[in-house]
What we know:
single chain, alpha+beta, CATH 1.10.630.10, 5-stranded mixed sheet, 3-stranded antiparallel sheet, globular, iron ion binding, oxidoreductase activity, acting on paired donors, with incorporation or reduction of molecular oxygen
Amino acid sequence: MPRSCPFGPPSQYARLRAEEPVSRVRLQNGASAWLLTRYDDVRSLLSNSATTSNRAHPAFPATVANTQAFAQKGFLLSMDAPEHALHRRMVTGEFTAHRVRRLRPRIQEIVDTCVGRMLVAGAGGRPVDLVQELSLPVPSLVICELLGVSYASRSIFQKNTEVLLNRTSTAADREGAFGALRDFLGELVTSKERAPDETLLGRLIVKYREADLYDHEHLTGFAMLLLLAGHETTANMISLGVTVLLDGDRARLDELAADPSLMPQAVEELLRYLSIVDYPTSRVLLEETEVSGVRIGADEGFIASGAAANHDPEVFPDPGRFDMYRSTAGHVAFGFGVHACLGQNLARAELEIVFNTLFARTPGLRLVRPAGRLPYKDSTVYGIHTLEVTW
């Protein structure tokens, strides 16, 4: 279902939520699944222990071709209890609010450098592509630093990540991209095994060895998950967030520029409003369950739509309006339940620092083309291909 406006979810969601909140849908591979569009139903099933996240399950809703690639060792989002709880505990400490606060000065340095280069590129009023100058480099540099990857190698994972997450990619293309990333990260993990350092991978190697749980293939898969989840999503949120803020009331931007303490709440509303990761929150029910009066059988797949839930008017009044002062408590932009996004604290920090720095240093920032004419991505993670700006 394509988005009918640049920012909101597919228009069909509103009708389904009102008339058929638990509905049958046909997937790209010809199979069918249940689609949930009400907030309460989405949270209920995402926290239901009688479900499986195993992407190798024959009934798992494959929203992209070759979903088996995402069922590799180390992919926490494909694990069930007790395995999931064990490995999540091993890595949770790396993404706590305290750990991210310690990273903020380095993130600020990265953002300052990228914005400075953008200002040079756009000197004299020349349009610059914000995607290439800021949206992609910032999360790329942060992830490179966390994993201990040379930034010169970023093109390897940027190119292959785009292929993996693009719904129009063929199974063969996706398989090739997955293999290239696996080989690249496998070599990186091998180098860390020889001499564990203070990077995230180095610390995890030591921690897993001490617990007598170390597995090369598992850590390679986890590194790939971090790369996919922590790079493309944040990059697209930067581009789309800037577009929303520049496309709206200029007084709103002036408020944010004058008071940076408003930015955390604005970021939460952007996360809810845009909901760029919509349907990877998919599962298979292991027991027959009733949802909004509909019986879903055991071994049937469902898609809990995050975008539909975040635009449920029963929870977020007038959901199609961006309101940075609204209460966004409970939004599901990062998923919900035991599989809620591990890196959400890091993503929030990056977004806050990018937006505050960008708007403080470019008070005249504006879009070259209106929001309705920008090239949006038809991808598993919604975003923008290019975003020309000037000031």
